[in-house]
Every structure is written in structure tokens, then in C-alpha cells.
């Protein structure tokens, strides 16, 4: 294998298993065959603005119709120009108005075991009250509201209440520090923070309000703090600044019609970390995002009225925005929401929830699946999971071995797995199997959704032979795409639009196989260059994870005089002992699975890997450790700082 023109990546992983949907599943699906999918995709690709405009007219409620589908002045997109709509109306009122008010909207379970169910009509009442309370605190169109809350129904209610009155929410994951909250408040100029007295996590109470107080000392733009009573903590309430939710929301009027808003009214900001520099406030707007979240939800999860749908993400991430709140609720789904940890009171909490609530669609992340595998099959086998019909995964590539476990143990070899590739920036799923139409291959996100046109380019920006792999770009704007970085349009242009002209640069590498299936190969910056061969992290990691002793693996390049990069891997083990023999066995295993090129030069056993708070392995930090450097760049998104310290200690 030689370095390919245009910077291709050596394609060394051989995954040949294919899993078509059962005939029975396909017969009942929204999109029933590959032919049907291809016809839809081709029709959409011929004229994307027309395709999306037709859907927008049918699927959203318009106070005033739009006059133009798309105005595109690269890199600025405006969708459904001239129209007026409201995302909260589409998610809540529309169902009530159309006679579905008694339908269940949210089925919630708290970590201590308390439960609540809200119908769409009840949700409308709660959201309207909250919206009136926000108004009474001086919030109106264009004001930014930071939300730092546990996964309670009130978190979704607060988001929707902002949308209802045209305020812009900025949800901050409730595991972030005071410093991170203050940074986000200041960057966005937030006027209000909504939080709670505390949050349940593994049986303990995290003092959220205390953390917010610390942040507010450094957040001059924030005028008020609205506090939900959740965990029974008794926080100090600052006179004139802080108000209790039960004081101002419960007594507010339930009459608050949704504000007709221009299609491009900002809906929310969501901060995501860059590899260096300060977090980027990704900006999404009203109509395009709402439509994209709704349609992708319906296509990918093949949503039906009798489904009980559960996405285990937190609303602090884009997955929670698009696939707990805006997508499923716009589709009128019955949404399961869980507050706490997957291992409280025991490591079978998720299986217990699925069994008791008869969940039919389950959407989670590879990092969680790897933890389930480690926790053991016995815990799964105790539960009846036959209500499930579709499984999903998002956030990282899934190693084929983890995919197979998910398929067998959780899906009972019956449920299609939708491996969904997308980003905070894309607003919704971009590539994924359609469960009734597209046969799956473990480790591949398969095909682009209708209206999405991927293009794989080399380092020179020209299209390459797709099977070789290169940088993944998207060739045409889509309604769910980000509209900018909050307060920094130059950075927006520079990060996503400057390297490849006319295409959105996703920042991932990918290849497309002879069947037109896409394989995400990791972040562009994570690629290893071993003696002129570009190797992807996921291939080496998947080879290691396919060994019975290995639980998780991370592969990075370490500078090497002769090879360019040496392959350094960090490995966590299931039950095995970290011996020299095992090290040699793993080298042989990688040689057999991939080839001599990928055999690790360094294998380090560790008890855990550094991850972001959303569960992604932070290879950037491991690269520094492998090279014996101090970790550079932003580490504020690291989930557990002690992991880094432990890894360094081993160095000394
Ligand atoms: C990055 C985006 C999308 C919501 C959660 C993460 C990686 C995401 C997959 C997948 C391989 C994936 C990519 C992407 N990623 N899904 N199915 N297969 N990689 O959102 O924090 O904005 O991260 O996550 O590298 O660029 P995010």
C-alpha cells in the first residue's frame, strides 16, 4: 500500500458481515426497500431546496408561508425565507389543535424511582406557564437563557418555553464546572440562568445551584436565576436575583400563545469544544432545524404511533436537543426520559426501564455499550427486552465487536441497528441506515439520508476515489445545518468553509465502499501516518477490541524518527491480567486482523481512558502522553481529571 494521491487512507479493515432487515420488519416500515430509499434520495438530490420546501409546507405549522426555500450566500444559509413559524408550537400545540392532546408526550423516571407522565395537552399547559414566568423575568425575543438542569421534564419544558417566546436557549450539561458556565454565560450574554437546587447522580445530590452561584459571581450579564426544587437541597437564594420555579411558574397563567417567529430566528446555542481554543457556540435557527430534526427522527427510527422511544442522552448535548425534544415531540412521539446514572441502583437500570416501560426504540452511545459489555451478560439476561424493535447508536464509531454484542444481547438478533453519523453542527442525523430499507454492516453508518450529498475529498480539496478515503464534506446546504458560531462568523467560515471551497468540512475522515456504504474513520487530526501509510484510529482500535481480553482501546500516533508515526495504543482490559504475554498476544492479534503495518509499537494497559463528558475518547490528550509532552489545548471538557494524572504517573 502506498500513499494514495489526494491523501487517501489505507483501507485495511475487512468487515464482511451484512444484516438485511427481516421481510416482516421491512413490510411494516415507512421506507421498505433499498429501491424506495434510492428513489427518494435521487429525487431529493436533483433539487434539494424543492425537496425540503415540499416537506416544510406539509410538516410544519406556518403562521405565514415562506416565499423562498433557500437563500445561499456561502457560508450563510437562510431556509424558508419570509415564513413565520414556532418550534414550540410544532412540538406541542399542533398535536393538541389536531386532537392528539391526550396522547402521552413524556414518560419520565427520576433516579430515585419517582415517575411522571405528561400528555401533550399537559405539556402545553406547563410550557405556557413557564413561558409566562420567563416573560415576567424580563425575557423576550432574542434574549439568551442558560439552562443548567438535571434531566427532569422541566428541562424540556424550559427549552420549549424559550422557543415559545423567541428566547434563545443555551443548555449547559449539568456536569460542567462553574468556570465553564461563566464562560458560556459571558460568551452568549445570557440574561437568565435556569437551574435546580440539586441533581440526583448515583444516589447522591450534586449541588447545582451552588455551582451556578459561583458562576454568577463572574457573569455580569445575568439578571435572574430561576431555581427548580428537585433534590431537596437548601441553596441560598439571593434576594432580588434568584426566584423559585414553584413561586413564579406554578402561579403563572397558562395562556401564552406561541410567538410567530421568522424562520431564521435563533432557536438555540450549544457549546461544543474545539481541539484548541475556547468552546464554539454553535447556532441553530427555528424552521430549518425543526423540520430536519422531525424528518430525520421519523426516517431513521421509523417512528410509529405505538412506539415508546428512549434516547439515553442528556439534553446538554445535541442528541438530547434533536432526539429527545425537537425531533420526537414534533413527530408526536411518546418519549421516555430518565434522570440518572445507568448503574444506579444497579448496573441493569437501563434494562429494567426498557422492560417496565416496554420501550420499543432504544438510542444510546458506543461508550455506554462498551460499559454494558464490561458489566456482563447476566444482568441483561435477567430482563425481558422483547419490546425492542430498533436500536441506535451515536457519538463515536462503534467497533464491530461491540455492534455484534448489541445486536445479539440487546436486540435478540431481531432489531436493526441504526449507526447514526452526525454532529452538533449538522443539527440532525446525516448518515444512517433506514431500518426497513438498508442492510447494515457492523461499523458502517451506511448511507446518506435523503437531501444529504456527501463528498469525499483529498487534502487538495478535489474529490478522490471514494474507496480510498479522505476528508468528509457535504456538497449542498441542508435545513438543519448550523448557521454560525455565536458572535464569531469569521471563525465559522474559517473552520467549516475555508479549506474546501463550496462544501461543508465535517472534520472527519471517511471512505465509501463498493456498495456505496460510508465508514467514518475518525477525526482528520487523529489520523496516523505510519511510513507513509495513513491509518485510521478506529481500525486499529476495532482490531484490539475484537480480542476477548480487551474492553476498550484508543490508538494514537507517537512521533518516530523513521516511520513518521509509531502506533501507540492504550488498552483497558475486561478481567485479564496486564502481562507481557498478553502484550505480545495483542501484537499478534493486530498483525492477523490488519497486518504488520498496524502492529502497535507501544501497548499501555490502563484502568480507564480519558473521555469527554459526553463519552468520547480524547485521543488528542493521549497523543501528548504517548509523546511524553504536557497536554496542550483545552482540557475543560475532560470527564475525569484523575485519569490523565494516572496515565502520566505511569510515565514517570
Ligand atoms: C463527532 C461529532 C452527533 C451527536 C453526538 C456527537 C463523531 C458521531 C458517529 C458515528 C463515527 C461518529 C464524529 C463527529 N461521531 N457519530 N455514528 N460514527 N463517528 O456530537 O459532539 O458534535 O461530535 O462525533 O467524529 O464528527 P458531537
Automatic annotation (TrEMBL):
SUPFAM superfamilies reported for this sequence: Acetyl-CoA synthetase-like
Catalysis performed (reactions): acetate + ATP + CoA = acetyl-CoA + AMP + diphosphate
Annotated keywords: Acetylation, ATP-binding, Ligase, Magnesium, Metal-binding, Nucleotide-binding
PTM entry text: Acetylated. Deacetylation by the SIR2-homolog deacetylase activates the enzyme.
EC number assigned by the record: 6.2.1.1
Gene Ontology MF terms: acetate-CoA ligase activity; AMP binding; ATP binding; metal ion binding
A Gene Ontology BP annotation from the UniProt entry: acetyl-CoA biosynthetic process from acetate
Binding site residues for Mg(2+): 545, 547, 550
Coiled coil: none
Domain (AMP-dependent synthetase/ligase): residue spans on this chain: 95-486
Domain of life where this protein originates: Bacteria
Residues annotated as binding CoA: 201-204, 319, 343, 531, 591
Root EC class: ligase
Name this protein carries in UniProt: Acetyl-coenzyme A synthetase
Amino acid at each position: 500500500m502506498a500513499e494514495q494521491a489526494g491523501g487517501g487512507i489505507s483501507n485495511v479493515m475487512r468487515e464482511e458481515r451484512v444484516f438485511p432487515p427481516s421481510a416482516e420488519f421491512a413490510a411494516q416500515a415507512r421506507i421498505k426497500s433499498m429501491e424506495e430509499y434510492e428513489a427518494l434520495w435521487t429525487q431529493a438530490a436533483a433539487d434539494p431546496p424543492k425537496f425540503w420546501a415540499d416537506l416544510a409546507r406539509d410538516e410544519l405549522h406556518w403562521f405565514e408561508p415562506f416565499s423562498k426555500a433557500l437563500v445561499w450566500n456561502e457560508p450563510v444559509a437562510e431556509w424558508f425565507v419570509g415564513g413565520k413559524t414556532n418550534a414550540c408550537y410544532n412540538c406541542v400545540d399542533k398535536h393538541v389543535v389536531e386532537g392528539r392532546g391526550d396522547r402521552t408526550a413524556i414518560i419520565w423516571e427520576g433516579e430515585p424511582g419517582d415517575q411522571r407522565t405528561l400528555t401533550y395537552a399537559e405539556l402545553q399547559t406547563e410550557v405556557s406557564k413557564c413561558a409566562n414566568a420567563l416573560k415576567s423575568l424580563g425575557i423576550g425575543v432574542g434574549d439568551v437563557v442558560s439552562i443548567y438542569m438535571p434531566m427532569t421534564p422541566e428541562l424540556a419544558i424550559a427549552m420549549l418555553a424559550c422557543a415559545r417566546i423567541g428566547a434563545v436557549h443555551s443548555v449547559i450539561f449539568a456536569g460542567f464546572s462553574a468556570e465553564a458556565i461563566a464562560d458560556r454565560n459571558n460568551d452568549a450574554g445570557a440574561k437568565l440562568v435556569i437551574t435546580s437546587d440539586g441533581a440526583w447522580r448515583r444516589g447522591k445530590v450534586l449541588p447545582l445551584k451552588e455551582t451556578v452561584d459561583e458562576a454568577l459571581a463572574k457573569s455580569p450579564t445575568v439578571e435572574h436565576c430561576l431555581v427548580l426544587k428537585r433534590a431537596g437541597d437548601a441553596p441560598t437564594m439571593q434576594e432580588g436575583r434568584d426566584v423559585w420555579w414553584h413561586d413564579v411558574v406554578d402561579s403563572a397563567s397558562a395562556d401564552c400563545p406561541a410567538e410567530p417567529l421568522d424562520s431564521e430566528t435563533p432557536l438555540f446555542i450549544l457549546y461544543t469544544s474545539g481541539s484548541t481554543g475556547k468552546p464554539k457556540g454553535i447556532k441553530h435557527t427555528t424552521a430549518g432545524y425543526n423540520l430536519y430534526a422531525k424528518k430525520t427522527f421519523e426516517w431513521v427510527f421509523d417512528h410509529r404511533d405505538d412506539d415508546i422511544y428512549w434516547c439515553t442522552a442528556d439534553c446538554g448535548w445535541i442528541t438530547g436537543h434533536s432526539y429527545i425534544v425537537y425531533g420526537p415531540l414534533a413527530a408526536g412521539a411518546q418519549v421516555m426520559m430518565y434522570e440518572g446514572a445507568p448503574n444506579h441502583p444497579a448496573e441493569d437500570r437501563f434494562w429494567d426501564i426498557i422492560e417496565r416501560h416496554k420501550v420499543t426504540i432504544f438510542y444510546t452511545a458506543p461508550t455506554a455499550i462498551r460499559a454494558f459489555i464490561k458489566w456482563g451478560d447476566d444482568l441483561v439476561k435477567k430482563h425481558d427486552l422483547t419490546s425492542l424493535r430498533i436500536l441506535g447508536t451515536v457519538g463515536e464509531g462503534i467497533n464491530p465487536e461491540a455492534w455484534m454484542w448489541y445486536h445479539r444481547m440487546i436486540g435478540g438478533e431481531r432489531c436493526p441497528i441504526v449507526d447514526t453519523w452526525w454532529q452538533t453542527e449538522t443539527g440532525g442525523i446525516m448518515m444512517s441506515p433506514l431500518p426497513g430499507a438498508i442492510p447494515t454492516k457492523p461499523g458502517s453508518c451506511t448511507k446518506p439520508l435523503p437531501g444529504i450529498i456527501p463528498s469525499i475529498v483529498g487534502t487538495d480539496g478535489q474529490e478522490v476515489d471514494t474507496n480510498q478515503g479522505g476528508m468528509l464534506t457535504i456538497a449542498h446546504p441542508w435545513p438543519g445545518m448550523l448557521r454560525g458560531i455565536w458572535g464569531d462568523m469569521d471563525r465559522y467560515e474559517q473552520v467549516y468553509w475555508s479549506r474546501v471551497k463550496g462544501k461543508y468540512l465535517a472534520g472527519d475522515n471517511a471512505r465509501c465502499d463498493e456498495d456505496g456504504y460510508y465508514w467514518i474513520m475518525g477525526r482528520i487530526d487523529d489520523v496516523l501516518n505510519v511510513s507513509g501509510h495513513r491509518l485510521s484510529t478506529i481500525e486499529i482500535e476495532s482490531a484490539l477490541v475484537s480480542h476477548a481480553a480487551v474492553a476498550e482501546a484508543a490508538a494514537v500516533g507517537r512521533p518516530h524518527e523513521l516511520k513518521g508515526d509509531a502506533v501507540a495504543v492504550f488498552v483497558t482490559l475486561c478481567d485479564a491480567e496486564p502481562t507481557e504475554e498478553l502484550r505480545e498476544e495483542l501484537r499478534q492479534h493486530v498483525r492477523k486482523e490488519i497486518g504488520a503495518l498496524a502492529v502497535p509499537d507501544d501497548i499501555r494497559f490502563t484502568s480507564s481512558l480519558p473521555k469527554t463528558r459526553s463519552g468520547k475518547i480524547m485521543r488528542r490528550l493521549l497523543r501528548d502522553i504517548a509523546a511524553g509532552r504536557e497536554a496542550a489545548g483545552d482540557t475543560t471538557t475532560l470527564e475525569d481529571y484523575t485519569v490523565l494524572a494516572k496515565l502520566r504517573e505511569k510515565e514517570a
